[in-house]
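Structure in, sequence out. Go:
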């Protein structure tokens, strides 16, 4: 286990990093559901940390995938991936071992990197918009700090 986050509606989301999955439990430990992320990831695994969207029902969660160097955006209810952003590298919007993720009250997303990444990035929330073949949250690179 690499992270555990409690949603507003009382579910515990657990990052099973090396097994490339996120599991959901009730507070009493009863298993509810799970989803696999980049199942063929080896080594450090794909599920490093999660953060919930700041809307009242927390419709989405954001998953930091350090091994594959991206952020996955999921619909929380269905546990389906809507989109992903980022790539490996040192430029704004790219990641080197993205380790932690958090959201603020305005919906902005913050990431930190480990190993030799050693930085924080802020992705400014600009609302919900169409993404090719899916619906999801979009952060244009020009808004990355």
């Amino acid at each position: 286990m690499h992270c555990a986050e409690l949603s507003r509606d009382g579910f515990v989301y657990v990052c099973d990093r090396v097994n490339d999955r996120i599991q959901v439990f009730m507070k009493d430990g009863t298993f509810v559901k799970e989803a696999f992320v980049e199942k063929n990831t080896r080594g450090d695994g794909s599920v490093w940390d999660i953060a919930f969207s700041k809307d009242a029902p927390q419709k989405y969660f954001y998953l930091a995938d350090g091994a594959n160097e991206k952020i996955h955006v999921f619909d929380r209810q269905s546990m389906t991936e809507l989109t992903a952003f980022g790539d490996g590298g040192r430029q704004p919007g790219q990641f080197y071992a993205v380790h932690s993720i958090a959201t603020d009250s305005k919906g902005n997303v913050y990431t930190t990197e480990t190993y030799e990444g050693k930085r924080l990035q802020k992705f400014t929330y600009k609302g919900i918009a169409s993404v090719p073949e899916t619906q999801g949250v979009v952060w244009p690179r020009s808004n990355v700090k």
